[in-house]
Every structure is written in C-alpha cells, then in structure tokens.
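User: Before I run my own analysis I want an independent prediction to cross-check against. Here's the chain; please return only the structure tokens and, at the end, one sentence I can use as a sanity check.
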Amino acid sequence: MPLRVGLIQTRTPATHAAALAHVAPLVREAAAQGATLIVTPEGTNILQKDRDKLLPQLATLDADPVVLGLRDLARELGVWLLIGSALVKREDGKAANRAALVSPDGAIAAIYDKLHMFDVDLPTGETARESAVYEPGERAVAALAGEARLGLTICYDMRFPAVYRALALAGAEILCAPAAFTRPTGQAHWEILLRARAIETGSFVLAPAQGGFHEDGRGTYGHSLAIGPWGEVLGTLDHDEPGVLVVDLPDGAVAKARAAIPALANARPFAAPEPLA
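Assistant: Structure tokens:
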C-alpha cells in the first residue's frame, strides 16, 4: 500500500504565536487529505534574520511553543510529523537549527541538527554567516517513522551528496530536505539538486519549503517538491504561496531503482588525487 505523505509550504512569521497559527491549519489540511507522514519546512517555528531580535525569543526544543503545539497536533491527528526544523536554544545555551520527528503519540522520536552552515562572502559584498548564530550538528541521522525509513537533512545539506549517500547506506529510503531556499539559488538549483540526490541514492526526496516575502524582509523560493527514486517529480507546488502538497509514494520503487542502477553497491574506495600545482 502506498505511503501518503504531506509536504507543508509556509511563510513563517517572526513570532512563535503567529508561526503556530500559520502552520497548524496546513498540517490539519494534509491530515484531512489522508497523509500519515507530514513534513514541514526549515524554520517552521520562527523566521527572524535580525539576530538581536531572534536570539531572545529562542527556547529549548522541549519548551518551544510551536514544537509543543505541533506535538499536541500530531497526537490529536494520529500522524507522524517531521518538524523540518525549529530554531531553538541548545542545552548549552547556543542555538541550533534542529529537525524533530514526532510520533503519533506526540513523543519526539528523533532529532537532527543541521550539519552544514551557509557561510559565504559574495562578490557583491554581501555576506552570510549561519555559523555566527547556530552550532552545527556532528552526525547524520536516519530514523523510522512507522515503517517509513527516513534520512534527515536540512536545506544547505543538499549540496553535500556524501550525507545522502551515508543515509541511504544506513537504510534510509525517504530523504527529507526541508528548506528555506533563497529565490536566486532556488530558481537556479533547487529542482536540479533535489533530483540529483534522489537519482544518486535511488531514494524518494521530500522537500517542503518556505515561500514568499517574509516579515523579516527575506524572500524564499517555495516550490515544494516530492521526487521519486528514478528522479521523477511526483508532485510540486509551482508557486511560493503557503499550501499543502499530498502525494503517494509507491511501494517497491526504491528497490526497483536501486536494482536498476546499483550505485550504492558498486562504489569503490579510492585515493584522492595529488593537488595540482
């Protein structure tokens, strides 16, 4: 029997209360359409690019009001809910960009801290320093959501194929890539990267996204995508408005793709080349 999944596309506000009021009806809509695994984007609980405004609002994962509200909602609806990421305070007081898998009884079944920080100096003079706010994670995480075998990643991670290969080798068949992609990079790279990660590993890829122009002034690309293990697009929201994408993941597709292109099995260790002069 196919697994019905729901991808939530949001335009997350800059406060927790508004963020929960925004995302909860969309989760309810996905559940009403029969989704038993629902995935939300990066930054589901709050988006605020002003560090001085963001940091005082952050709470630990077990105290975050959006996470608590979504845990209650998962319990009420009887669904698996992957909070694609919540921006939270770590136990040591630092901040983390953290995914949380919530079971149908409202318990947190797995957490994952984003591995790769987007730190860049652009020729235009613009800079981005995620590492100035968030402490990166140290390990990749695969987790079971019932019988669904998930690999957890967040946004910029999708540019690092080794993470996806490691998750697939650990048994993951559904690679989750919640994101808040910028509009220029989204137009250029979003679909290409996600389809490549699916093809390389013979996996489903679920990529719920933030979309539109937010209260804090940022613009995000939207265009949430569900991709099959042969690289085919199973469904998309072809816009940047808040919405819900529900798709069925067919049985046997991962095994079929991995048998046809056994790249995971055929890979060999190799020595790196000498640096060019």
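Sanity check: The two ends are 56 Å apart (CA to CA).
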